[in-house]
Amino acid sequence: MMAYWLFKSEPDVFSFDDLIAKGDKGEQWDGVRNYQARNNMRAMKLGDRGLFYHSNIGKEVVGICEVVALAHPDSTADDPKWECVDIKAVARVVRPVTLDDAKVEPRLSNMVLVNNSRLSVQPVADDEWDVVLELAGGTRAL
Questions:
Q1: Where is the secretion signal located (predicted)?
Q2: How far, in Å, CA of 90 to CA of 87, rounded?
Q3: What's 108's DSSP letter?
Q4: Strand duo 121-124 + 4-9: pairing
Q5: Over the stretch 63-98, which tens digit does the pLDDT of each residue have?
């Protein structure tokens, strides 16, 4: 069964367009140095989908990505305890969904993004996924 996630990135460091440019091979989601976020990546399966969220600038969901490689050592870490998955871009959202949009939507009141916006890799419940895509007006192919 597919699980859903949210991946946060500062768009001036690595944006959704940067991920799109990586093509089908995708990119490792490196640099995560938080145990909870790492453990979330360890729980991911191939084909799981994620919301790509631009943090700091925009603070909005801008695209959909997919896990294409299971958790493995993060090549940017000196310590093998840090792991990451690889993801690829699969679609843009029609309309970005901002953090403010999520905070005022009652159906997202329990979403991790709303309650712990600092966590860089977080789970998204099935119903939350559906609501975010509804607010986004759906997706469009790359």
A1: none
A2: 9
A3: G
A4: antiparallel
A5: 999 999 999 999 999 999 999 999 999 999 999 999
The conformation of residue 46, written as its DSSP 8-state character, comes to T
Q: Count other Cβ atoms within 10 Å, centred on residue 99.
A: 16
What global pTM score does this model have?
0.96
What number of H helices and E strands is found in the chain? 5, 7
Measured in residues, the chain has a length of: 142
Rounded Cα gap, residues 134 and 12, in angstroms:
27
Cβ atoms within 10 Å of 102's Cβ, excluding its own: 23
Domains observed in the chain: 4-141 (3.10.590.10)
